[in-house]
């Protein structure tokens, strides 16, 4: 076992990082220089820290995530885990191991480790929170919620064809540190992620030591498994800080469309705020991608809304829904959420001048098929039970740059969304 949280942190960050440069003392990054084409020398300090703990995490990942090279093979291997009888035999797919015996990590130390690994890359983009508070006071700390499609590693390297993104920028040993740095910068109380294919060997081990409880639900036949040297299926993950919330109920939902079970999933959890005793439901999802599947997404959205209607007892429990909906605001699935009896509003509309317009983009990339600039990611909330106190502004076009996302600066093709919520003081009969 590791003798300190710092050494464990180093091992988990660097377990698969042969070829990393020697690291400087933790602190600010050096000025950026393009990566050399020659192999980089390994870091003896970090490689020496690798031991059985990281190997166990790797083994857990391999056990949980069968490899595959075709849809037919991976469907037969994975779809069976999604029915109730099989799920009980494969709990590693659905919930995290109990982290109580694991030694905590200081978030500052983890951030230092990330910055040390990233010392040759340009610094993080500066993004500011926009104060959206009204005259409604709150006696309790806000609830910070972060929504992010982090880009599955297998898809980024093997399927998505980001033609303007250097291959070096997508290497997992550094890209995972960019992802962690983004999370640590905003310190969310609740973290909702999509396209997670390194849950068991990276995010669950590290975030559990930061005080989060996590749940992972993979797609039944993830496209990641068609990529050589993949790390298992991608899926949705939901994390919450255990010192702020108590888990009341949790549901893993395989979405249906026209009565057919689909490849898209959602997680919905009812949490109780330890400070206020108030309950609310937090959900995360990732709907079907690509043009031509609009009706399919609409059906998936209706199924999710029906599930959430039941979970929230007909909107009695306040609700926050995070996700990559793969749908512009003009699509039917967006309109279903906007007009639902759950009384939902999209938080990021509040950044617009009129409070009625979504951001111009939440994803911006260049593929072989051309440039794609779309608004696909949302944080929905119960507008009569919750107030949005602030929201993280988006990256500007100048910050994103002409090569778009992902890049050496930013690890995903989707922007993270972060909002601070508070309960209304007069709950109008809501729990």
Structural notes for this entry:
By secondary structure, the chain is an alpha+beta fold. It has a domain at 141-421: Deoxyribonuclease I, Chain A (4-Layer Sandwich). Helices cover 26% and strands 24% of the residues. The protein has 12 helices and 15 strands. It has helices at 5-14, 44-47, 52-64, 71-78, 84-87, 107-117, 153-158, 172-186, 199-209, 294-311, 332-338, 397-400; strands at 129-131, 143-149, 190-196, 212-218, 235-241, 245-257, 260-273, 279-286, 319-324, 344-346, 363-367, 370-374, 377-382, 386-392, 417-423. Helix 6 packs antiparallel against helix 8 (172-186). The longest helix is centred in the C-terminal third of the chain and has 18 residues, at 294-311.
State the major sheet. 7 strands, mixed
Strand content: 15-25%
Q: Determine the structural class based on helices, strands and strand pairing.
A: alpha+beta
Number of strands: 15
Secondary-structure element string: HHHHHHEEHHEHEEEEEHEHEEEEEHE
Helix content: 25-40%
The strand line-up of the biggest sheet is 1-14-15-2-3-5-4
Averaging pLDDT over every residue, what do you get? 82
Low-pLDDT regions = 16-27, 30-90
CATH topology of the domain at 141-421: Deoxyribonuclease I, Chain A
* Assigned CATH superfamily of the domain at 141-421: Endonuclease/exonuclease/phosphatase
Task: Provide a count of the helices.
Answer: 12
Query: What would you report as the Rg, rounded to the nearest angstrom?
Result: 21 Å
Give the CATH class of the domain at 141-421: Alpha Beta
* N- and C-termini, Cα separation: 44 Å
What's the overall geometry? globular
The CATH architecture designation of the domain at 141-421 is 4-Layer Sandwich
């Amino acid at each position: 076992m590791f003798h300190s949280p710092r050494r464990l942190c180093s091992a988990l960050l660097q377990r698969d990082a042969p070829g990393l440069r020697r690291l400087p003392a933790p602190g600010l990054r050096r000025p950026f220089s393009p990566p050399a084409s020659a192999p980089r020398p390994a870091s003896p300090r970090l490689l020496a820290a690798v031991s059985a703990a990281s190997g166990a995490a790797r083994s857990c990942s391999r056990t949980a995530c069968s490899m595959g090279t075709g849809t037919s093979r991976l469907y037969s291997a994975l779809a069976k885990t999604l029915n109730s009888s099989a799920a009980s035999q494969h709990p590693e797919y659905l919930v995290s191991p109990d982290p109580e015996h694991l030694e905590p990590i200081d978030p500052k130390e983890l951030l230092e480790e990330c910055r040390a690994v990233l010392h040759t890359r340009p610094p993080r983009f500066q993004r500011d929170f926009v104060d959206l508070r009204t005259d409604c006071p709150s006696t309790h700390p806000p609830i910070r919620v972060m929504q992010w499609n982090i880009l599955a590693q297998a898809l980024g390297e093997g399927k998505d064809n980001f033609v303007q993104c250097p291959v070096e920028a997508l290497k997992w040993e550094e890209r995972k540190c960019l992802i962690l740095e983004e999370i640590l910068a905003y310190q969310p109380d609740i973290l909702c992620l999509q396209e997670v294919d390194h849950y068991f060997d990276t995010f669950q081990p590290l975030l559990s030591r930061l005080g989060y409880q996590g749940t992972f639900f993979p797609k039944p036949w993830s496209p990641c498994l068609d990529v050589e040297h993949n790390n298992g299926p991608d899926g949705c993950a939901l994390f919450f800080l255990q010192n702020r919330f108590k888990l009341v109920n949790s549901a893993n939902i395989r979405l249906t469309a026209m009565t057919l079970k689909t490849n898209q999933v959602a997680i919905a959890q009812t949490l109780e705020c330890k400070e206020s005793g108030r309950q609310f439901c937090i959900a995360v999802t990732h709907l079907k991608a690509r043009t031509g599947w609009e009706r399919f997404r609409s059906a998936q959205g209706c199924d999710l809304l029906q599930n959430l209607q039941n979970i929230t007892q007909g909107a009695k429990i306040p609700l926050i829904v995070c996700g990559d909906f793969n749908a512009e605001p003009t699509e039917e699935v967006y309109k279903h959420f906007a007009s639902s009896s759950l009384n939902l509003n999209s938080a990021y509309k509040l950044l617009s001048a009129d409070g009625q317009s979504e951001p111009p983009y939440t994803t911006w990339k260049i593929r072989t098929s051309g440039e794609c600039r779309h608004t696909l990611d949302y944080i929905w909330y119960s507008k009569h039970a919750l107030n949005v106190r602030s929201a993280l502004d988006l990256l500007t076009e100048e910050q994103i740059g002409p090569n778009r996302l992902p890049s050496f600066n930013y690890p995903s093709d989707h922007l993270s969304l972060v909002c601070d919520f508070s309960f209304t003081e007069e709950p109008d009969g809501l729990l």
